[in-house]
Amino acid sequence: MVKAVVIRRSDRPIEVVDIEVGAPKVGELAIRIVAAGVCHSDLSLAKAGGAGMELPVVLGHEAAGIVERVGEGVAGFGEGDHVILSPVPQCHHCRFCDSGQWTLCDSSLRAFTGKMFDGTTRMSLDGAAVTQMACIGAWSERTVVPAMSAVKIDKAMPLEQAALIGCGVVTGYGAAVNVADISRGDSVAVIGCGGTGLNAVQGARLRGAERIIAVDVIVEKLELARRFGATDTINAESSDAVAAVQDLTAGYGVDVGIDAVGTKATFAQVVAMTRRGGQCILSGMAAPDLSFSMMQFTAAGKILKGNMLGMGDFRVEFPKLVKLYQDGELMLDELITKRISLEQVNTAFEDMEAGKVARSVIDL
Ligand SMILES: [Zn+2]
Ligand SMILES: [Zn+2]
Fold it and tell me: Does domain 2-153+332-363 fall into CATH 3.90.180.10?
């Protein structure tokens, strides 16, 4: 029996219960989770009572751990390997992987069902199958995942920091480094300075952006954004963020605007604060349904790009981000605001909604 955070019924709050985790089958790995981040997608899923996934479901998709058992037919992994888990599997042979859009891999659709490739799950509760968020179910002391959802990393890398790389870091960093085309000297605005936005800020810094404008409504987050590389900060509660960005860019707007929140209001802001012909990167999905005038894209020639998990090849991205951290180029320690136990997940959700934390990390 292992402890896990479960949604049992859509009208009931999340609970910590004992579940069973079976052995890995062909192409799978058994993992002991060491650390897991609390991400907005976990909160959204909890609030939506599983969001259409079959219940019960174990939450958690941003994590790092140690390989305990290697299933049949898996090459390249051994017991004791340290891994970062990826919220979508990457097969490396479908049309998306072949064309360099690895996070859109055909296998990634599997992650939305929370079931393994044979349509079953390895977790169970009182004999009944338990769905695993993102094919992972990381808020559990142990799990079984498809081998293509794991990436081996240097054992010297602390697993708490490594865990964050799997979703928030790779998404924000990738928004600035892979999705946006940022040239040295460009101006960049990032709306939302949580786990994703802060990494977009440091991604923009690593790409050599000259002016990096961070926008948020919480003073502490704006201060943190400065440490991550923001040259200017705007409090969107006390000032008009679009006007403030225009003031800082001679009236033009920024070359690249990144929306790390994803609401109707932030979408309107990111489009308005990006210069004519500039790039608007959508990297949040807090309230994804909206309508807008296409004139900004036709008459003003702006470019709209969507970002799914940084769009990169995780086998390359995760070790690269580990190396950047080890070289002192990528800030990860500063993202960890709180260390908690599985039982404290509800408090972590409250902190997240109050905008109090960059990331809470669950130590297992
Ligand atoms: Zn996430
Ligand atoms: Zn693929």
Answer: yes
